[in-house]
Amino acid sequence: MLDTPGLVRSRMGTSKEPDIVHLETKTVDGHAQYITCRMQNCSEAVRSKPFPGYIDSDSLIVQDDYVFVQLTSGGRPHYYVSYRRNAFAPMKLPKYALPKDMHVISTDENQVFAAVQEWNQNDTYNLYISDTRGIYFTLALENVKSSRDPEGNVMIDLYEVAGIKGMFLANKKIDNQVKTFITYNKGRDWHLLQAPDTDLRGNSVRCLLPYCSLHLHLKVSENPYTSGNIASRDTAPGIIVASGNIGTELSDNDISMFVSSDAGNTWRQIFEEEHSVLYLDQGGVLVAMKHTSLPIRHLWLSFDEGRSWSKYSFTSIPLFVDGVLGEPGEETLIMTVFGHFSHRSEWQLVKIDYKSIFDRRCADEDYRPWQLHSQGEACIMGAKRIYKKRKSEKKCMQGKYAGAMDSEPCVCTEADFDCDYGFERHSNGQCLPAFWYNPLSLSKDCSLGQSYLNSTGYRKVVSNNCTDGVRERYTAKPQQCPGKAPRGLRLVTSDGTLTSEQGHNVTFLVQLEEGDIQRSIIRVDFGDGSAVSYANLSSTEDGIKHIYQNVGIFRVTAQVENSLGADSAVLYLHVNCPLEHVHLSLPFVTTKNKEVNATAVLWPSQVGTLTYIWWFGNNTEPLITLEGSITFTFSAEGMNTITVQVSAGNTILQDTKTIAVYEQFQSLRLSFSPNLDEYNPDIPEWRRDISRVIKTVLVEATGISSEQILVAILPGLPTSAELFILPYKDAAGEDKRSAEDLKEISELLAQKLNQNVIQFNLKPGVRILVHTAYLTAAPLTDVTPSHSGSAMLMLLSVLFVGLAVFVIYKFKRVARFPKTNSCTQEAIGRKISWTSWTPTSERDQTAKDCPGSRTGQCIDCCPADEHAGGQMYEERSSGAGSISTVAETQSTKEIPTCINV
User: Fold this and answer.
1) Which residue windows are transmembrane per the record (predicted)?
2) Helix (H) or strand (E) run with residue 35 in it
């Protein structure tokens, strides 16, 4: 079993250039990038980005001649490979493999061996093998068993046999049964393992292929002091020791130990229980120690590749063995056993030297030739390989490993060729095109006047050394590239997303499935009035960069054209700017069964494509809209909460407000001493605190229950407020909700306010007076002709003086607050997107300063003059969607003009 370095892990490595370092870094916004630099200097200025755009976090692998990265887009992972540090190319699996996960098993001998979990697999993986560049993959074995280690890492039940090139063991799941298979040619052919003819006692074993075979556990230990379930060594070719069982499937019961000394062709049972096995003297000595939780004092030695075993004592007192370790070097004859005599004792180290067993070193006449074969077939990976092995009856020390004695190439046969990419092997052994593959399609790199290799449907197994024979017949033939029109054009972003932030670089990648990239002109229109053109497609391999200065949805188009035709692709890119604040604007109080408008006010006002999610009261299902304003009604009295969530890209912000609903209510407009404006920061928290203070003062001054009134400070300057008189129950529990009852309370409140008794201390030395927002009415005057002229003159004088005061006060207000009526950047800088009450003449300018007001960014919601004889102007801001009415200052059953802040 291999714990493979998957494309979900980070790996930092060095290439064949020893001073080049490969790194995966994170940008300030959390994106991962692959960069390279020299070890001596890795500053920002000298870094290189071999892969254009971002990659998935923890996905970089640098292994031998290959670099792998992963990029997820559209919910699917895409894998890219660079061979010998050339440009990255997408790894090509069969079209409908649709991988969920990939692990690189091996990159030996200029080829990639990978385990891929496809869309319909859960606990199994398929094995794929690539061409030399690691781009085109073909299936080697389906449904290989997988598991997870205690740390959660994926473990593939695959084992590469050391010392024999191209030899693997794998546990395959077939109809819910796990069986062990072996290959000698890197996955081209797989076979079940032949069980031993006899058991440990010499009894005959009845096990007939394919119904019964030998099955092995392939877990490799990561602990250097303990052995796993299987072991082999480069310096002991052909010797494999493993634990397993004989039967119809792999089992965790009745586990025995087995050994093969001829590379898996035949097997012998050596123990009926699991043992740890150590290789000494290049496999000339095998040491076995029982796996047990009990203390032991014996071990077993074999000098003939496991055919016979001798029992030796290594300690006089039984030892709880924690691990066994051989001295460095395969030719060593020294091993160390460490453990403890009891659970309370200290560690004990027992060093064992077997040199005294041998009296001499081996000579040439002590060896015999051994030919590697697969069930009698001597040609493996295109060559006949002969090794030398010590004769079983000779008891001498081998020394340094010399490798294979001889290797002779074989004549090529069909067995030396696997199916090429896009082809599948059928039951008759032929490689035929898959239904999704068109053999006549040409690579986009094939330019007129050049040549390409026309596949025969076969490709020679990488590292296969065969010559002649059918080699010419199965090898791809060079042919001239014909002219082809562009086909299969794709336009994507480098990070695979369809969103970007305003002012940030966007990298577009143009991919062409078929056509002559050297002779094709490409034009990309970014949809914002700018475009670029390139003389050939190869100029765009590193991506096409563009910065969008405005937010919106942009239609990006790419067109490729040559003399034979054209193709185009379209991408819709959403450009946003970060959403920083959301404010829900709605009335404090409303009337039952009457329409109310709620508006989400945003900062900044233009952020791109938005989704609004509205929650009302205790409803579990929200209302989802694309507009920032909605209209609704309440059918029951009481306090109700409304929440709006605004989704912009990966950001979701929300605001919640409470609204009171009654059959009827009254309201009074309040104003304050002018000095309050100097301390008004115009933020919601300040308004809530001042409202609470005023409510407390009113309750203390009038004796009215706090449940009968609601005070709301309104946004903007000069500071003003709305006092709401709500239905109530008297001491006897009688419901008081008629207009007369509310008017009675309203008159009491107005009386106290006009008497200047409602006041509070804002801070030491600063006292604020609260009064109604209109002048007390003068006594009624008879204006019939019978009245004297002096009386008429007096009345005209009063009116003239009042008008003069109004004009002076009005001019003073405008001069003091020249910019409170627009949603300009100065107002935005104060984190507010709403305006103060503005005169009608100023609202026209507001509309100019806030062209997006139709989406609810600017709100005009109060009359300009709080002293206009107790009457209010009709204000209807189409942008905010707020509702205003013509009403007396003391109003009944009217939607208030104020917004809930």
Assistant:
1) 791-809
2) strand 32-38
Tens of pLDDT, residue by residue over 807-822, are: 444 444 333 333 333 3
Task: Evaluate if residue 517 carries a pLDDT over 50.
Answer: yes
Rg (CA), the chain: 43
Is 680 in contact with 694 (CB distance < 8 Å)?
A: no
> Residue 771: phi, psi to the nearest 5?
-145, 170
Whole-model pTM: value is 0.66
- Homologous superfamily (CATH) of 487-576 is Immunoglobulins (2.60.40.10)
Among 324-333, 415-424, 452-461, 551-560, the minimum mean pLDDT is found in: 324-333
Whether residue 582 contacts residue 600, with contact meaning beta carbons closer than 8 Å, is answered with yes
Q: Which range is most confident: 14-23, 310-319, 488-497, 821-830? A: 310-319
Higher pLDDT, 217 or 45: 217
Relative to beta strand 565-576, strand 499-501 is parallel
Torsion of CA 229, 233, 237, 240, to 10 degrees: -10
**Domain ranges (residues) in the chain:** 157-273, 276-357, 365-409, 414-480, 487-576, 666-777+789-892
Query: Long-range contact list for 478-482, CB < 8 A, 24+ apart?
Result: 478/451, 478/452, 478/453, 478/454, 479/451, 479/452, 479/453, 479/454, 480/449, 480/450, 480/451, 481/442, 481/446, 481/447, 481/448, 481/449, 481/450, 481/451, 481/452, 481/516, 482/442, 482/448
Q: What is the secondary structure of 70-123 as a DSSP string? A: EEEETTEEEEEEEETT---EE-B--TT---SEEEEEE-GGG--EEEEE-TT-SS
pLDDT at residue 16 tops 70: no
User: Looking at domain 414-480, which of 3.30.60.270, 3.40.50.410, 3.40.50.880, 2.40.30.160 is its CATH number?
Assistant: 3.30.60.270
